[in-house]
Write a structure and sequence with these properties.
With about 140 residues, the chain is α+β, with helices and mostly antiparallel strands. Helices cover about 20% and strands about 15% of the residues. It has helices spanning about 5-15, 85-95, 110-115, and strands spanning about 20-25, 30-35, 40-45, 80, 80-85. The strands form two sheets. Strands 1-2-3 form a three-stranded antiparallel beta sheet, covered by helices on one side. The model is unreliable at about 120-125 (pLDDT under 50).
Length: about 140
């Protein structure tokens, strides 16, 4: 799914998660999504993509189809009444898994699969990485 179509899909899929109050596209950021949780906690996320081998974005999109992943239980979103980046990541992965989309083969929380992912106070790459430990 190309980024623009995925952004539309993300807004719809994430809005169905029980602890999500609203999701909207960010008008001032290309492929940005603003997520507001029922607690008032907010996340601004960016959608990034890597083209499949041989994919040419100048050509019409070739939709793929899989058997949609089986639904999973939503993990806890709150720790001591606050959302942490790691809990939010797992929660949003569950929301995508539970979307029922035949275009999604699998979903995982990136920091679970790659524990080297930057955490609060760390940096990765050339630019500083600053993320609250809870919000």
């Amino acid at each position: 799914m190309r980024p623009a179509r995925f952004q539309d899909f993300a807004v719809e899929a994430l809005a169905k998660a029980p602890d999500v109050k609203s999701v909207e596209q960010e008008p001032d950021r290309l492929f940005g999504v603003h997520i507001l949780f029922m607690s008032g906690a907010q996340i601004w996320a960016a959608i990034t993509a890597t083209a499949a081998p041989g994919e040419d974005y100048k050509q019409p999109e070739n939709h793929v189809s899989y058997e949609a992943p089986a639904e999973v239980a939503y993990p806890d979103l709150y720790e001591s009444g606050k959302v942490t980046p790691q809990l939010a990541e797992k929660y949003l992965a569950a929301a995508f898994t539970n979307s029922g989309s035949p275009e999604i083969e699998s979903v995982y929380a990136y920091s679970v699969k790659d524990p080297a992912t930057a955490r609060s106070g760390q940096d990765k790459g050339n630019s500083p990485f600053d993320l609250q430990s809870a919000f």
